[in-house]
Design brief:
By secondary structure, the protein is an alpha/beta fold. It is built from 19 helices and eight strands. It folds into three domains: about 1-195, Beta Polymerase, domain 2 (2-Layer Sandwich); about 200-355, Nucleotidyltransferases  domain 2 (Four Helix Bundle (Hemerythrin (Met), subunit A), Up-down Bundle); about 365-440, Hydrophobic Seed Protein (Orthogonal Bundle). A hairpin with a 2-residue loop joins strand 6 and strand 7.
Length: about 450
């Protein structure tokens, strides 16, 4: 309801300011477009400052650019018709984050202009329409990523470059020839997705591993990268892209109930993603440019702008970063666990049915009794029903991690999270768990990490 009211306001404003431009070229009435944008950008900033959610503000900015581009495209097409030229078959397509409907204040505007003509036979009218769209965006201050392609060229480029394919899988029709856009989506699905699932998902998983290593496999950096760091925006988006290649949907809803995501984990990562988008929006506003690194000298300022308060001797920036670490840890934990499920082969039948084309890579493991094993300096559960049948092993897991200086594997961390219902009052007062806990506390200098 709120989103539609905002869009109605933008459309009404555009109608009053931009509709009267007639058949004049959009670039000839640039001041009208710039004034329209200035007013609407101010409204968005106020909504952000009033506490608007990260997704909400980003979606509203994408809607604003949609409205702008449809008027620009319409003006360019009207100019061509006014010159007595036949209708030009051209479709304006949003790609990447813009196609996803998420734009931070200084995000790039990625568009593709899709046509039916051969590269060597581009008509002057088509070229003029493309130039009118792009020049107005540039002159309005946007950083634009753009391409002009036929469907054949777009499909070939998508299969040549993973980043281009990823941008196109989030494509969204904006204006022009809708039939041309529909044909592109159908061919993209049949020629770039079907039969390419394994190749694409393996590349996305490798990209995630590489990025995590670059950022120390840790969310706890003093100056984190909100987009590419561990547990950042890109990790969440990776989940959506991999899911699309099997389920055809860019939503975490497809992962719930398939032994991937519990409903609790889904809520956590959705909340975390919204938090990161809001934080990135404010970072753009504070610096006046596109940036992803939350530098130390900005953290107190950003925390104040986001209405954090100093409490009990804690700085605003410390409260902000505590929230940041909590949210990114949730995204990082889920994405690491899902990757671990694939590379270790420790998956269930339901999970295998989601990505059955992936190979299983079973690394060497060292058993620890009948309940756990160690692989790559991480402690793993030997079976999924371990804590249901032996709840005391939940405490034993932490004791083993302390004794052997191991990390809990993402699989084990997830199983512990799903098994908290077994920690009843009876369990808390049982002798076994209490003795293990006392033993953990007695290990001088080795308690903090485990707790």
């Amino acid at each position: 309801m709120t989103m539609s009211r905002h869009l109605d306001q933008v459309l009404a404003h555009a109608e009053s300011r931009l509709a009267a431009t007639g058949t004049r070229r959009p670039t000839e009435v640039l001041p009208l477009y710039k004034k329209f944008l200035k007013v609407e950008e101010h409204r968005l900033r106020l909504k952000h400052q009033a506490g608007g959610g990260g997704r909400e503000i980003c979606a509203r900015r994408a809607e604003l650019v949609d409205v702008l581009l449809r008027y620009v495209f319409g003006g360019a097409a009207a100019t061509a018709r006014g010159n007595g030229e036949p209708k030009v078959s051209l479709a304006l397509i949003a790609l990447g984050g813009y196609g996803r409907g998420e734009l931070n204040p200084f995000s790039d505007i990625d568009v593709m202009l899709l046509h039916h003509q051969r590269a060597a036979e581009i008509s002057p009218d088509l070229e003029e329409m493309v130039n009118q769209v792009l020049y107005l965006l540039w002159d309005s201050g946007f950083k634009v990523g753009h391409s002009t392609r036929s469907i054949k060229e777009a499909i070939a480029e998508a299969n040549r470059d993973m980043r281009t394919k990823t941008a196109m899988l989030e494509s969204r029709f904006l204006a022009g020839d809708s039939e041309l856009a529909r044909e592109f989506r159908e061919q993209f699905r049949s020629k770039c997705v079907e039969g390419h699932e394994r190749e694409y998902v393996e590349m996305r998983m490798q990209d995630q591993v590489t990025r995590h290593k670059k950022f120390g496999d840790s969310v706890y950096l003093q100056e984190p990268n909100l987009k590419s760091g561990c547990g950042g925006l890109r990790d969440y988006q990776n989940l959506l892209w991999m899911t699309y290649f099997k389920e055809g949907s860019l939503s975490t809803n497809q992962l719930v109930g398939k032994d991937w995501l519990s409903e609790t984990d889904q809520r956590r990562i959705e909340t975390a993603y919204d938090f990161l988008l809001r934080l990135r929006t404010d970072l753009h506003y504070a610096t006046g440019r596109a940036t992803d690194i939350l530098h130390l000298n900005l953290q107190e300022q950003i925390a104040k702008r986001l209405n954090y308060s100093p409490r009990n001797g804690q700085l605003r920036s410390e409260a902000l970063m505590r929230n940041y670490y909590e949210h990114t840890r949730n995204i990082f934990r889920v994405t690491e666990r899902i990757t671990e499920q694939f590379v270790s082969g420790y998956v269930t039948n339901k999970t295998r049915s989601l990505f059955s084309f992936l190979p299983l890579i079973r690394a060497d493991k060292t058993p620890v009794g009948d309940s756990f094993f160690v692989r790559s300096k991480q402690l793993h559960p030997a079976r999924r029903d371990l804590f249901r049948k032996e709840p005391e092993q939940m405490m034993r897991a932490f004791q083993l991690a302390q004794e052997r200086d191991l990390d809990l594997s993402p699989e084990l961390a997830d199983l512990l999270s799903r098994s908290l219902r077994h920690v009843t009052r009876t369990y808390q007062y049982a002798r076994g768990p209490r003795e293990i806990f006392k033993s953990i506390l007695s290990q001088k200098g080795r308690v903090g990490r485990i707790l």
